[in-house]
Amino acid sequence: MKRGIPLLRVLFTCLFVCAVLSAAAFADGSHDRTQVGHSITVGPDEEINEATCFGCSIRVRGHVAGDVTAFGGSVVIEDQGEVAGDATVFGGDLRLDSQVKVAGDVTVFGGRLRRDPAATVGGDVTNFGGAGWMLLIFALPFVVFGAFVWLLIWLIRRLLRPAAPAPA
């Protein structure tokens, strides 16, 4: 039994070292920012690669070399902010102030797009505004699932119903 404990410690130590080294290997110097529930702010003199936010908002005043994506939050690009990729917002608003540049596509799903006429967008602009789209995406699968469950229950009850006795 004493022999198994040091072996187990060595195994866990090796696994821990491998996990730390693999995390360091995948981390790059590109300054990606991903947050859950905490807003992201890119200052006027900052440059990051990607900005992704779940349940929070993104404010860009500097330069984003890739995409800006927010799920359940808003994106504001202001003060000559630049996005070299796409700006995508799902369940929130997108505001493009004067003198901002988005090189890729702009997509807003389930929110509003506020775009200054002086803002530059290099790709397509798509806006599926309003809560109806969100309701369609989230409620429709539950309705279909509920109908399927109801159908299964109806079939099982029908098959398990006792047979009526024949009239004599």
Describe the structure using short key phrases.
elongated; alpha/beta; six-stranded parallel beta sheet; 32% helix; five-stranded parallel beta sheet; 2 helices; single chain; 16 strands; 29% strand; 168 residues
Descriptive notes:
The chain has a domain at 28-130. The relative contact order is 0.08. Strands 1-4-7-10-13-16 form a 6-stranded parallel beta sheet, with no helix packed on it. It has a 5-stranded parallel beta sheet with strand order 2-5-8-11-14, with no helix packed on it. The termini are far apart. It is an alpha/beta fold. Helix content is 32%, strand content 29%. It has 2 helices and 16 strands.
Biggest sheet: strands side by side, in what order?
A: 1-4-7-10-13-16
Shape: elongated
Question: What is the count of β-strands?
Answer: 16
End-to-end span in angstroms? Answer: 78 Å
Tell me, rounded to a whole number, the average pLDDT.
82
Number of distinct helices: 2
Radius of gyration: 26 Å
Percent range of helical residues: 25-40%
How many strands, what sense, and barrel or not for the largest sheet?
6 strands, parallel
Strand percent estimate? 25-35%
Low-confidence stretches: 20-27
User: What order do the helices and strands follow?
Assistant: HEEEEEEEEEEEEEEEEH
Main structural class: alpha/beta
